[in-house]
């Protein structure tokens, strides 16, 4: 795939000072469709790579492109509405769930809020719930709804199920697949080979800040599943 056709391309990207680089001369392209899983051991640079995609991190060297455009040329706030992110641990703001959705989209009315919540598997009654009283799984889904409020073109998910029980994790995995099937590409960081095999259309394996494998989930994990 060419750099302009790739969802994101990384050209000789390094992050961090010489001798302590979190990413080291990395070159990779992520496909424009489907769910891409970024895997690897702790400290391998997975989250750093993901954060480069919406300029929460910037490279010390090299270029990161989105559909061929150098992200250094993009306004960060505008980019983050287009490339939304769900973090490892859900962070909600004070107030109701509806208040949280309006943080992303001030024009989000009650009907739109209910639609977003139903899209992530929460009842419309959650609109008026205190966000601080949600369970971990409910809060993560509310954060996903908040990320979707801006109608992003890409969704980044940084180990979003690591703090959830199996049932809540399965709900989030199904939601990610629905988004992908509806045409929204997802980039999902995971430390689990099993999750990678379940979800990934394309996988990237990082070790020590460098690419150690890419391709199908089976190719990256060496089979099994």
Strand and helix map with partners:
Blueprint: E1 8-15, E2 23-30, E3 35-39, H1 46-52, E4 61-66, E5 69-70, H2 76-82, E6 83-86, H3 97-104, H4 110-119, H5 136-148, E7 154-158, H6 166-181, E8 186-189, H7 193-199, E9 202-207, E10 210-215, H8 217-221
Helix pairs in contact: 3-5, 4-5
Task: Explain what this protein looks like in three dimensions.
Helices cover 32% and strands 24% of the residues. The protein is α/β, with parallel strands linked by helices and 225 residues long. It has one domain: P-loop containing nucleotide triphosphate hydrolases (Rossmann fold, 3-Layer(aba) Sandwich), CATH 3.40.50. α6 links the parallel β7 and β8. α3 packs parallel to α5 and α4 packs across α5. The longest helix is centred in the last third of the chain and has 16 residues. 42% of the residues are buried.
Shape: globular
> What average pLDDT do the residues reach?
93
Largest sheet: 6 strands, mixed
Per CATH, the class reads Alpha Beta
CATH superfamily: P-loop containing nucleotide triphosphate hydrolases
CATH architecture identity = 3-Layer(aba) Sandwich
Q: In whole angstroms, how far apart are the ends?
A: 27 Å
Number of helices: 8
Assign a percent range to the helix content: 25-40%
Rg calc: 17 Å
Number of strands: 10
Helix/strand/pairing category: alpha/beta
Tally of separate domains: 1
Q: Reading side by side through the largest sheet, how are the strands ordered?
A: 6-7-8-3-9-10
Secondary-structure element string: EEEHEEHEHHHEHEHEEH
CATH topology: Rossmann fold
Report the uncertain regions. none
Strand fraction: 15-25%
């Amino acid at each position: 795939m060419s750099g302009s056709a790739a969802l994101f391309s990384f050209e000789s990207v390094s992050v961090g000072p010489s001798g302590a680089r979190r990413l080291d001369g990395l070159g990779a392209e992520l496909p424009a469709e489907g769910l891409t899983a970024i895997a690897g051991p702790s400290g391998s640079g997975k989250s750093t790579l993901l954060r480069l995609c919406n300029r929460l991190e910037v490279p010390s060297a090299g270029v990161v492109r989105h559909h061929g455009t150098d992200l250094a040329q993009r306004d960060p706030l505008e980019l983050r509405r287009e490339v939304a992110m769900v973090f490892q641990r859900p962070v909600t703001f004070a107030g109701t769930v509806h208040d949280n959705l309006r943080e992303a989209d001030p024009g989000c009315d009650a009907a739109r809020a209910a639609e977003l919540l139903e899209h992530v598997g929460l009842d419309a009654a959650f609109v008026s719930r205190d966000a601080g009283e949600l369970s971990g799984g409910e809060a993560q889904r509310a954060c996903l709804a908040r990320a979707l409020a801006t109608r992003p073109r890409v969704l980044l998910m940084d180990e979003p199920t690591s703090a959830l029980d199996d049932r809540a994790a399965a709900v989030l995995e199904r939601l990610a697949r629905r988004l992908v099937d509806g045409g929204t590409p997802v980039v999902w960081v995971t430390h689990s080979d099993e999750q990678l095999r379940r979800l990934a259309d394309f996988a990237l394996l990082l070790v020590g800040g460098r690419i150690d494998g890419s391709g199908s989930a089976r190719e990256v994990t060496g089979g099994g599943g």
